[in-house]
Specification:
With 503 residues, the chain is α/β, with parallel strands linked by helices. It is 38% helix and 20% strand. It is globular. The mean pLDDT is 97. The active site is at residue 257.
């Protein structure tokens, strides 16, 4: 079966009607073959604003549904996702080019966050706080916030939505999602899956979850709308620079999940077998198109000549090819622009004295499919393109001799998402995790930079935007906190001993 027919058939099984897939202005191509697989209708700014109004009306009803009952909707969403896992995972592979285990893994992540959020729906705890006034009680109450806007990137087309939606829904909010214009089909599939869960649940108002099909301009409608108190935006730092100030201007909240330029440090005592495997997955997995992809590696000079030839061999032999037809570990880049960006970075690295292994186009899939051999670049210093995120499989490798110097170089870039150290020396690992160590939101020991679990809070510092999503107490960003003080005495003592006695 050709890829377009397979896409239509998969979407049909997932609950998206075929007539939505043709005759529109947004051409969707599969990076697997470069072929067109759909042409969707985009919405107008006016339609987007109307959908936000509808989501606001839905919020006003949903906030009064008890949180554990809201959790029941998310439990049903998890059930529907379990039933749809194979089809949705395959659709992720078609639309983004992920290898099957990563496509399915992304759907598993959605299921995991639903399970987490169901438990959370009974744990939206507030504190009771000691008060200085007799006969008083002070406490914190957490309330629903409103319409949560979600803007997502192409490379996690479904998981990022679910991280936000599962938490936002149990917290009593409605959700308006602007998916990447490169991956709208998986978004339509999620909408259909959610609709099935909503039909089975009680008290779900119409318009609780909306999907806006369109480009950055439609994203701006969400960013500027006064009835959207929180926008969770995932994408490039360039996008964050546009979105952040606009939200700040109207005092809306932002969860910004932006670009990464993640690094690892390989110390003298590292288990090199483990390091090679972790580096290979972190740097070449998902064709280098994860926000947490390993992009820079600092290797101690005592192990450099052992480790780097092994990495070079892995780069020369890793299988590159269609994620649908082969057992390749590296699938395609998303499009030609990504391929050109990679070649430009490699040229710049060479000009800075870099020695490149790999990086060439692999001729498979068709004229408009962009497969590349991942590139390992040995650099004399951290300069030029090493300082920026290029969203492609390029790993820059540099030597170091002192750990403090490696940590300083590690932190000397704009982004601050993920980091790792490979060592069996407790002093080195603790130093890396300390206040003087990695400045990233994620700091790992003896595992790679990518592949986070949903139980932890996910996000990064500096130009990565400072947002946190997913596990731990990330839910608090989706609610508003009220501090309540109750006086159950017959007196009115004022705080700080202030007196204000009127007759
Ligand atoms: P992108 O910035 O091109 O687009 C992301 C989303 O932002 C899209 O939906 C796009 O339509 C929207 N958008 C663009 N300009 C906008 C504007 N002015 N107003 C509102 N919306 C706008 O990113 P991409 O190419 O889809 O994804 C790759 C990037 O995303 C990489 O930089 C990667 O590191 C980052 N990313 C970060 C995380 C994270 O959690 N930190 C996760 C995944 C991807």
């Amino acid at each position: 079966m050709d890829i377009r027919s397979e896409t239509t058939e998969l979407l049909g099984r997932l609950g998206v009607r075929a007539d939505r897939l043709a005759g529109g202005d947004l051409v969707v191509r599969s990076p697997v073959t470069g072929e067109q697989i759909a042409a969707l209708k985009t919405i107008s700014a006016g339609d987007a604003a109307a959908m936000i109004e509808e989501a606001d009306a839905a919020f006003r009803a949903w906030r009064n549904v008890p949180a554990p009952k809201r959790g029941e909707l998310v439990r049903l969403l998890g059930e529907e996702l379990r039933a749809a896992k194979a089809d949705l995972g395959r659709l992720v592979s078609i639309e983004v080019g992920k290898i099957p285990s990563e496509g399915l893994g992304e759907v598993q992540e959605m299921i995991d966050i639903c399970d987490f959020a169901v438990g959370l729906s009974r744990q939206l705890y507030g504190l009771t706080i000691a008060t200085e006034r007799p006969g008083h009680r002070m406490m914190e109450t957490w309330h629903p916030l409103g319409v949560v806007g979600v803007i997502s990137a192409f490379n996690f087309p479904v998981a990022v939505w679910s991280w936000n939606a599962a938490l936002a829904l149990v917290c009593g909010n409605s959700v308006v999602w602007k998916p990447s214009e490169k991956t709208p089909l998986t978004a339509l599939a999620c909408q259909a899956i959610f609709a099935r869960a909503a039909e089975r649940a009680a008290d779900v108002p119409n318009g609780l979850v909306q999907v806006l099909i369109g480009d950055g301009a439609i994203g701006e409608v969400l960013v500027d709308h006064p009835k959207v108190p929180l926008v969770s935006a995932t994408g490039s730092t360039r996008m964050g620079r546009a979105v952040g100030p606009r939200l700040a201007k109207r005092f809306a909240r932002a969860i910004l999940e932006l670009g990464g330029n993640n690094a690892g440090i390989v110390c003298p005592s590292a288990d090199l077998d483990m390091a090679v495997r972790a580096i290979a997955f972190g740097a070449m997995g998902t064709a280098g198109q994860r926000c947490t992809t390993l992009r820079r590696l600092f290797v101690h000079d005592s192990v450099y000549d052992t480790l780097v030839p092994r990495l070079r061999k892995a780069y020369q032999s890793v299988s590159v090819g269609s994620p649908l037809e082969t057992s390749a570990l590296v699938g395609p880049l998303i499009d030609r622009v990504a391929f050109e960006g990679m070649q430009k970075a490699l040229d710049a690295a060479k000009a800075e004295g870099g020695t490149v292994t790999g990086g060439e186009r692999v001729d498979t899939g068709g004229a408009e499919a962009y497969y590349v051999r991942p590139a390992l670049v040995e650099m004399p210093k951290q300069t030029g393109p090493v300082l920026e995120e290029t969203f492609a499989p390029i790993l820059y490798v540099m030597k170091y001799s002192e750990l403090d110097q490696a940590i300083a170089e590690h932190n000397a870039v704009g982004a601050g998402l993920s980091s790792s150290i490979f060592t069996r020396d407790l002093m080195e690992s603790e130093r890396f995790l300390s206040a003087e160590g990695s400045d990233c939101g994620i700091a790992n020991v003896n595992i790679g930079t990518s592949g986070a679990e949903i139980g932890g809070a996910f996000g990064g510092e500096k130009e990565t935007g400072g947002g946190r999503e997913s596990g731990s107490d990330a839910w608090r960003a989706y609610m508003r906190r009220a501090t309540n003080t109750v006086n159950y005495s017959k007196a009115l003592p004022l705080a700080q001993g202030v007196s204000f006695d009127i007759d």
